[in-house]
Amino acid sequence: MALAEGGARFEDGSVRGLVGWVECVVEMFPSLPLESWRESKETLHRFLQVVGKVRLEASQRRNHWWNVPFHITGRGITTRPTGPYGGGDAFCVDFDFVAHRLVVRTLSGREVSFPLAGRSVAAFYADTVAALDALGIQARPQHPYPYDLPDAGRPFAEDEEHRSYDPAAVTRYWQVLTQVSLLLEEYAAGFSGKTSPVHHFWHTFDIAVTRFSGREVPVPPEADPVTREAYSQEVISAGFWFGDENVPAPAFYSYTAPEPADLTTRPLHPSAAQWSPNRGSHLALLTYEDARATPDPWTTVLDFYATAYRAGADLAAWDRTKECPDGITDPHLRP
What InterPro entries does the entry give (predicted)? Predict the structure, then answer.
């Protein structure tokens, strides 16, 4: 084992340390079946959408909506600092999944926070607006309704149905999210072309990184504005989600858009991975439990992402010279 400050990493991938006088073990890819926290996930998903829509209104638009998602922190997730632009008191909103609080902070050092547990979506929305008001922040969701969820026609302010919040399950979600983000950072390092950040999308509740070929794609004007901006160029995405109505279990995934012909004839590794139909195209899928069952889940998932990427890149004739193992482009150091 290799010693680290406050703890040690063991051969099974776990990290053990002392919190107070209690020994804690963080398992690599701990179990988190959807049914074990479905109600809490549905509530949390809507909490994230409320704050995500504040970020959408307050941030500078970036290509492919890169300004919108959350980023991972050492205690949870954050909007990152945002508006106003051109001077003034910028702010950020953090979900603290250690203390289980929402924290709104300004550049001048002012702060308002409140607990996440015990609140309906309606109460969370009201408390978020009140926190913004107390700090003089004008940003508000332009459309304060859920996005692409079954109750998309009900305002956040009227949602008393979703009120479950299991702190232990939410902490586990954040731990899994963090571990997957580090894995995706390693995967992202292998491509020197245009690449998105590793980020957590609040509309679909997944975490992903996207590679771009550099070629533009004709997008029909009748497509919705989210799709037009997201898929204006050829992409191959790799990510993870926690399960939903379409894929009712946590899973690692990859897709190529536009999807080239014969994509599903290409092999995936490991053998448990498969091509799955999804809204008129296909996803490469490896369930979380199948990955966890392997001797080395980390390497298994990286291999899965690599085979899915090669399948799309080969068939769509991507420039494979942009691949850079270990993130190295220095010609004197590359093998």
Answer: DUF5996 (IPR046038)
Give how far Cα 62 sits from Cα of 33, 91, 258, Å.
Answer: 34, 18, 21
What is the residue type of 123? A
- Residue 320: burial class (beta carbons within 10 Å; 0-12, 13-18, 19+): exposed
Distance CA 32, CA 48 (A): 19
Q: What is the pLDDT of residues 146-158, one digit of tens each?
A: 999 999 999 999 9
> Which pair of tokens denotes residue 162?
């979703």
Burial of 264 (0-12, 13-18, 19+ CB in 10 A): middle
Q: In whole angstroms, what is the distance from residue 329 CA to residue 33 CA? A: 40
Chain centroid, CA 244 distance in Å? 14
User: Cα dist. 196→25, 52, 67 in Å?
Assistant: 32, 18, 11
SS3 21: coil
Residues 6+ positions from 22 with CB-CB distance below 8 Å = none
Helices 167-188 and 38-58: crossing angle, nearest 10°? 60
Contact 250, 34 (CB under 8 A): yes
Nearest to 49 by CA among 69, 66, 72, 75: 69
Q: Where are the domains of the chain?
A: 1-30, 34-158, 181-325
- Half-sphere exposure for 194 (CA within 13 Å, toward CB): 13
Angle CA 249–198–218, to nearest 5: 90
Angle at alpha carbon of residue 273, lines to 191 and 311, rounded to 5°: 40
Cβ neighbours of residue 5 closer than 8 Å, sequence gap 6 or more: none
For the chain, state the CA radius of gyration: 21
Return all residues near 289 (Cβ < 8 A) that are at least 6 apart.
Answer: 31, 33, 249, 250
Predicted model pTM: 0.90
The secondary structure of the chain in percent helix, strand, coil, rounded to multiples of 5, reads: 30, 25, 45
